[in-house]
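Ligand-bound model needed. nicotinamide-adenine-dinucleotide.
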Amino acid sequence: MADPTTFEQNLAAADKYLARFAALPLPHFINGEPHGGSANATFANQSPIDGRHLGDVTSGTSTDIDAAARAAASAFEEWSNTPGAERKRILHRVADLIEEHAHQIAVTESVDTGQTMRFMGHAALRGAANFRFFADQAPAANDGRSLPTPDHVNYTTRHPIGPVGVITPWNTPFMLSTWKIAPALAAGCTVVHKPAEWSPFTAHLLAEFASEAGLPPGVLNVVHGLGETAGASLTEHPEIKAIAFVGESGTGSKIQAQGAPSLKRLHFELGGKNPVIVFDDADIDRALDAAIFMIYSLNGERCTSSSRVLIQSTIYDEFVDRLANKMKRVPVGHPLDPSSVIGPLIHPRHHEKVCSYHDLARDEGATVVRGTSWADAPAGGNWVEPVLFTGATNDMRIAQEEIFGPALTAIAFSDEADAVEIANRTDYGLAGYVWTNDIARGHRVAHALEAGMVWINSQNVRHLPTPFGGTKASGIGRDGGDWSFDFYMETKNIAVAFGHHVIPKLGG
Ligand code: NAD
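Prediction:
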C-alpha cells in the first residue's frame, strides 16, 4: 500500500472514510444504484473499538431481495453472453480499483470489524488478487473436455448457472466476499450479495468499485439485512439458482432446508476446530511461530485457525512453556495502530461467547494462561486478551467447539496413531497442520486426517489454483481454481455420432 500507515494517519483516514457511513443510512446497491429499501427500516452498526455508533444500515426485506434478484435475472443474459475477454478486462479493472483504494478498504474494514491493520492491508490486496486470478480464467471458463469413443465425439461445455446468491460472514468480510463474487462474475453469473449485518461497509465499496469499473447494472447487487430475513429470502428466491455461503455450520444446515423447495445448488464453507500436530522431531521454532500465527492473527476469527495444538508428550511441557511466553508478548491494541496484532472482537455478543470459554476452560479442569491486555483500551469496546488453555483433553468443550477468538487449546498425544485419533475426533474437518521432519509420517498423517486441506511444515499458505473447503461439519464443496467454476457453471455433454453405430430397430 502506498498510502500512509502510521497510527495517526490511519486515525485521520478513518475519520475521512467513515464519515459517509455516519451521515446517511447505508443503502442497498441494486441494478447499479443505491437503493433505500422498501421498508424504511434500518439497524445500527456499532464500533467494536468503543461501542460508538458508526452508522445506520438499511435492513433488507423479502421485497428488496426480490428487486435485487430480478435485477440480477434481467442482467444475466447480457452478462453471460459478454465475451470472456471482456469480462476479464472489466474484472481486472475492479482489481485495479481495489488496489488504488486498498488503504480505504483496510481502514474501513478495520474500524468495522476490529481486525488490525497489520492484516487488513493484506486482506484488501488479496481481494484484488482474487479478482485478477479469476479474471484471467474468464476467457476459458466455458471450455470443456473432449471424451471421444469409436462411435461418437463427446465434448463438454460449461455455461453459467444463472443469478447466484452470495452470503458472507463478518471475519475478513471484504476478502471473503471477493473469493466468491470474483469467480461468479468471471463465470458469467450475476450476483446478489448479502453481507454480514455486523460488518456491512466494505460490501458497498466493492459494489461501487465494480460499477465504476464498468460492470453493467444488475450484475452485482448488494442487499443488507439480517440473516433470518434478508438472508433467508435470498436462499428461497426462485430466480437465484445457487447459494455460496460462508458462515457457521448451524446456519449452513438452515440454508440447506430453506433452499430445498427451490432445489438450490449449495456451496458451504463452515466452521472449523483445526488441529496443528507437532511431533517431537519437528522444527520446533517454526512450528511454534506457525501455531501462534494461525490462532492469534485476525483475532482468532479465522475458519482455518490452528485452534487445537496437539503436542507429542515428549516435548509437551517445553513446547507449551514457549507457546505461553510468545503468546504473552502478542500485543493487543487499537486496530488502526500498525503495531497491534489483536484488536477488539466484532460484537459484544461474540465477545461474551469467546470470554465464556475462559471460565469454561477452568471449570473443565484446564489451566488458563492469559496474555496481556491493553491498559488504555477505550471503554465500551469488545477487548479481549489472548489465552492459552493447557492440560486440556480432547473431550472438553474447549477442544470440541469453535471459539472463533484468540484462544488456543493445547492437548498432549503419545504417538502417531493417538495424534490422528485425537485430530479426527471432532465434528469439524476443515484444515489440519502437521509438523514433523519424517517425510513419510508427514504424508501418512496428512492422508489419515479428516480434513479438506492439510499443510505439512507450513502455516496456511494459500495458492489460488488449489481447492479450498472442508469435510464433515466444515463444509460442502470446494472452491479455488477450476473448482469455483464447477460450482458457478453447468456442465453439458454433447455427443455427435460418426454415423455408423448400431441403432436398435424396434417395431420393424
Ligand atoms: P453466521 O452463520 O452467523 O452468518 C453468516 C452469514 O449468514 C451472515 O451474513 C448472516 O446474516 C447470514 N445468515 C444467518 N442466518 C441465515 C439464514 N437463516 N439464512 C440465510 N443467511 C443467514 O456466521 P458468522 O458468525 O457471521 O461467521 C463466523 C462463522 O463463519 C464461523 O463459524 C467461521 O468458521 C465461518 N467461516 C468459515 C470459513 C470457511 O472458509 N470455512 C471462512 C470464514 C468464516
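The pocket of nicotinamide-adenine-dinucleotide is lined by residues 167-171, 176, 194, 196-197, 226-228, 231-232, 235, 246-248, 251, 254-255, 258, 269-272, 303, 402, 404, 430, 470, 474-475 (CB under 6 Å).
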